[in-house]
From TrEMBL:
GO terms for biological process: signal transduction. InterPro entries: 7TM_chemorcpt. The keyword Cell membrane applies. Its main location: membrane. This is Gustatory receptor. Keywords: Cell membrane, Membrane, Receptor, Transducer, Transmembrane, Transmembrane helix. GO terms for cellular component: plasma membrane. It holds the Pfam family 7tm_7. It comes from the Eukaryota. It is a multi-pass membrane protein. It is found in: Cell membrane. The chain crosses the membrane at residues 45-65, 77-99, 136-160, 180-202, 259-278, 298-317, 352-372, 392-409, 421-439, 459-478, 513-534, 554-577, 636-659, 674-694. The keyword Aminoacyl-tRNA synthetase does not apply.
Amino acid sequence: MRWFRVDNFYDSWRPLYRVTRCFGLTSLTFDFREQTARRTLTDQLILIGGVLMFLFVVLGTLLNLRDKVTELSDSYLLSIGLFGIIGALSVSQLLALLMNYYNMERIFKIAAIVARVDQQIATNLGYRWNYQKEHLFGVLFIAWVYLQWILFTLGLLWRVEPVKTYDNDVFTIVKSMTSFLWTMSSYQTNAIFIISTMAIIWRRFAALNQQIINLYQVTTAPAHPKRNQPLKLIKRIAIVHDQLGDAMQLFNVCFSTEALLSLAPGFAFIIFALFGLVHSYAASDDEQSRSWAASNVIYAGMYVVQLVQLIVAASLVNCECKHTATLVHKMACYGSHDSVALRELRIVSQQMWHKAPVITCGLFYFDWELMYTHSVTMRWFKVNGLLDTLRPVYLASNILLVNFTSYNFATRTVHRTLFDLTRFVFTLLLDVFLTWRAIEAGQAFLKGTESMLINGGLYGSIVLNFLLTSSVPLWNSLNGTAIFEMFHGIEACNDELQPLGVKIDLQKRHLAFTVYAVLSTSNGFFVLIMNWFFPSVVEKITVPEMFPDGWAVLALARTNFITGISSCYSTLTLLAIRKYFNLLNETVANYFPTSTDSNPSSSALNSVRLIRKLAYMHDRLSRSVELFNRCFASQLLFLTCSGFGFTLFSAFGVIHSFATNAPEADRRLAMVNIGYDGVLMINIVTFVVFSSLVNDEGKATAVMIHKAIAYGSYDRRTLRELRTLSQQLGSRSPVISCGLIDFNWEFFYTVWFLV
């Protein structure tokens, strides 16, 4: 296997460089003699060729498959899922191509760090690298990955004849096979790139740990042959570890997102393939469907193998990195050192404690827990406070152009950048255009039924809804700082409650908030998917003229996105305020007598300081309620009123369609309207329920303080503080209100009266 002389790391890295360059994943030309990289015209052409391949071959094949999406399985849901996964796999490879082009200088920086680490380990620590063996293993791994892909592809074609799927259309067959080969070969090459890079870093950590073990044997010996030798080695080990930590961080920047984008469709394909196999034998007697299902399961084995290989490589890197810190701790504990060497060991130990890199994409760690722990998959980051739990909603609002203020979650500060202002101006222009197109397209409602009153009412409600939702981004931009202040005030209560022994599972709340954010925005994605991929279904159940073009569809989806994000923000904020009011009341009941049989706990704080702390928390929560009323209450009132109007006319539309023997199309439209209205009513009911809970918990605090005064015996100073707190609660009773009405159960029939 001596293709050429392998003298250094770059020579052993050459096969990986060549194979990734063939598929456009390496877009820098590397000179192995000078050991320098530069971007040439060839690299630019490689990128352009990859993008054109995707646009003209892969995208064209997906559009051809759209007409045959229902033939993938007897189940409509499974067919749509498999079609979506195929599209996601193709798009993920295009994103990998673009991301590698953008991060290529960082990727070559990883190679430069590894080459420098090899020299330092060889020169300073006396380790001899066998680059010939490393080169051989690299070639064998590349061959193994492509071989397994070929075997699984043969398994896919075992009982399926693709020619029949395309009705013997030679051009379509060639185009589809080219698309399949390009997508999957690029997928395999990207997996080789990612796993091989992790293996390279793991090998360096393993060599470093071996030298630390040798040093450990020296430092635990009865006598040191050279007094300064351990001190020098400790410093060199610290430098090498720091450089390898930098390489891991660069890997996370360059490859972790690509790994996630590749694993997610693969994991989804595994799930849909298994369900498809069960469905084919449980609900179908078609032999062709069973053959497709069995072939999909066989091909899903390739994604399982890729997932296991990636997890193994990432776990090895993480374990070796942690092992380095463990060995340094052992040296400090069990070795015999002078004061200088011991101080150096402590410095290195602190360095490894502060800088403990892991292979992660930011969403979760790539380790064995990823295979079986669902909670780990939701760990986007370490959750330290309430603002971290709300980060999924914040990211969704930024992506969907609803929020235009940047929050720094590390320093807990808020600012507005030039990019935020640019997004805001673009959103204003976009919303004005989409609102105009939606109002024009909504005129189809004027011909929806035989009743002009119902048609006019529905059209007016739709127009009002479009106008109100288009103003929400402007409102959020004006109140961006106030929204952050509201969240910061709630988080301050969390910091005050922790010393009192109150613990909150922020990780669980983060998971719940993420799920709720996905559900809140799903309606907009549903509108896009149904109108763009299944227009025939939409034409049967709605007014065809309402969606004359893609802009009208985008306007409707935009309205649903804004409504969903606004509902998500308001509901989760109310949930957080209610939770901390509840914890505040529990704290009062825990440290003060609130009944004849209560047994309050003792506190490290004296009674006066504890009462003042409770007063401070209640004041911050009350301030958060006031800011909520300022930021969200008015817009929610308007959206709720428009929703109630749509509810009223949708209900009358259903009654009219069944009472007047209206055509079947009118009845279907009436049922679709009432179904869409159900989504709006869920948002309204959820908002009113949590508003009522916040109001009740806010009032309960005053009741708890009155009970504490009535059932407890205190000295004069403590009693004065309790009375002062009682007066504060009486003069400042937080209520969720827009200034016109309070949001509680009376809100339902009040709005009905207004409507």
